[in-house]
Design a protein that fits this description.
The protein is of the alpha/beta class. It has helices spanning 25-35, 45-48, 51-59, 72-80, 96-104, 134-145; strands spanning 15-19, 39-43, 66-70, 89-93, 111-116, 124-127, 130-132, 149-152, 161-162. Helix 5 packs parallel to helix 6.
Length: 164
């Protein structure tokens, strides 16, 4: 089958991803290099409050990829201002709950990818790389009720699986 370039679906930025490991090889190499990402933003109150954790996260990014860490309030402000859509960017959240907090601040998210929520006590396996707690399910269910498309996709070359 031939795919005509003008019929290819364009990627909308920022890509919004939930991944409990935040910045790691799958994000940097699997997504960053394959899609030519320029900027990765980690949205986490927990990480942003610790200068040591911020420095450690930024150190994990290659020099050609800008990496920043913002708390949820600053992330909401910048997202709503359209700052993240000006470049090929990925916004990474540690949990569905953190992303839902951002949505409750009025941020309009249309689609999210769950890239990895790994085994935790009390979480049930949905996929080998997605384990959901009751809190995770409640947050994701609220997002889908709001019309947000939720998919599970560990790497961009793999087919996304629609949640619910």
């Amino acid at each position: 089958m031939i795919t005509l370039p003008w019929l290819r679906k364009k990627t909308a930025y920022p890509i919004v991803r939930i991944d409990d490991r935040l910045l790691h090889g799958q994000v940097v190499v699997g997504w960053g290099q394959q899609l030519g990402l320029e900027w990765i933003i980690l949205a986490s109150d927990r990480i942003a409050e610790s200068p040591t954790m911020v420095a450690a996260m930024k150190a994990g990014a290659p020099l050609e990829l800008q990496a920043d860490v913002y708390d949820l309030e600053e992330t909401a402000r910048r997202f709503s201002a359209g700052e993240f859509s000006l470049r090929k960017s990925m916004l990474v959240f540690e949990s569905p709950g953190d992303l839902l907090k951002l949505i409750h601040k009025g941020v309009a998210v249309k689609q999210i990818h769950i890239g990895g929520l790994h085994f935790r006590e009390g979480a049930e396996e949905l996929l080998p790389y997605v384990f959901l707690s009751n809190w995770d399910r409640m947050a994701l269910d609220e997002m889908t009720k709001r019309g947000i498309r939720v998919t599970c996709q560990d790497l961009p070359g793999n087919h996304p699986l629609v949640y619910r």
